Structure formats: C-alpha cells, structure tokens
Amino acid sequence: MNKVTKVPSWAALFLLILTHLITGPQAVEAHSQKFEVKTLSGKLLFSADDNKVVVGAERLRVLGAEGTVFPKSTETPNVRADPFKELRLESPMHALVMEAPKGIEINAEAGSLKAMCRTELRLESKDGEITLDSAKIKLPDLPQGSSSSTGSRQKIYELCVCPSGRLFLSQAGTSSTCQINTSVCH
Predict the structure, then answer these.
(1) What H or E segment, with its residue span, contains residue 10?
(2) Is the Cβ–Cβ distance between 146 and 181 less than 8 Å?
(3) How far apart are CA 90 and CA 112, in angstroms?
(4) CA distance 44 to 54
C-alpha cells in the first residue's frame, strides 16, 4: 500500500513563489529557474535559463526587416535565405570572419559571384596554390608600361610582373619588353 505524504502549506507556498506566471493585457511574464516550451508529444521547442537559450525547432526563422544581430559569435551548420530572397551577412563596423578547419566553399550555381572592397582584396594560400580556372580571365584596369617608338602599334601585350608582385601590361615585341617598360613598378 502506498503511503501519501502531506506537504506542509508553507512548502507549497515556497514552490509557488519559485515559479509563477503573470499574464496581463500587454505582456506575459514567467519567473522560474528554467523556462521550456514543448510540443504535445513532448519535443523541446524552446528552453531558457540563466546560462543559455536553446531553440529545438528544426528551423529558426527571423522575420524582422533588419534581420537579427549577434553581439558575439554564431555557430550554425546552415544559413539560408527564403527562396528568391537575398541573403546578406554583414558587419557594419568591424570585420566579418568565416572560419572552418576543412575549408569554406562559396558557390553560385545560377549566377555570378562578386567580391568588392574599398582598399585591398587579397587571395592568399599559405601552403597551396591559387587557381583561376576560366575560358577568359580579364584584368581591364592593368596599367600599361611605356611603349617603345619603334615597331607597329599591334594589340598584343605581354603580362609583366614587378618585383613587388604588381602586374602590368607591356606591348609585346620579338623578345620580352617587361624589363624595358618598368615605369609602373616604382
């Protein structure tokens, strides 16, 4: 036979004070050590305590026009915009850093990829190589070295490299003209 233990009224009152819910015309407040929202089947959708907030839903969707702001770092296996909508990752005042131990892939299956910056764009490989794999590679704003007065005004150029690594074009001749046209390398 099970014995029923009666809880003193002061203990019940203490338990009620630890967790209570306040509903009002403009807000609902919950005061507790931990707050959880579960489905009818018991699956955790949301929980919060002093140390962390957990969203257990399969997908978290932020509807605000300004998106969401994370003051520290964010870890997620997937960031995705709604279909036919633009995805924007930005850091208005500081750097935007993406890190991964096995690589980062940026892929535009049906469109172009554009990288723009105000000062310097660097592609750097510490131990490997940088491959530009395309039928056409255009460098439209490369400076041109001074051309010699002899020879024809043909539209064939030689791609030259300064000791600093800067590239420039030189009008091609029968032999290399890079060493002649080094006015760009200053």
Answers:
(1) helix 9-18
(2) yes
(3) 19
(4) 9
- Cβ–Cβ under 8 Å, residues 162 and 184: yes
d(CA 30, CA 23): 9
To the question of pTM greater than 0.70 for the whole model, the response is no
Would you state the pLDDT for residue 81? 83
Whether 170 and 177 have beta carbons less than 8 Å apart is answered as yes
Could you tell me which residues come within 8 angstroms of residue 62 by beta carbon, excluding any fewer than 6 positions away?
Answer: 68
CA distance readout (Å), 60 to 45, 80, 83: 10, 10, 15
Q: How does pLDDT run across 13-30, given as a tens digit for each residue? A: 444 456 778 888 898 888
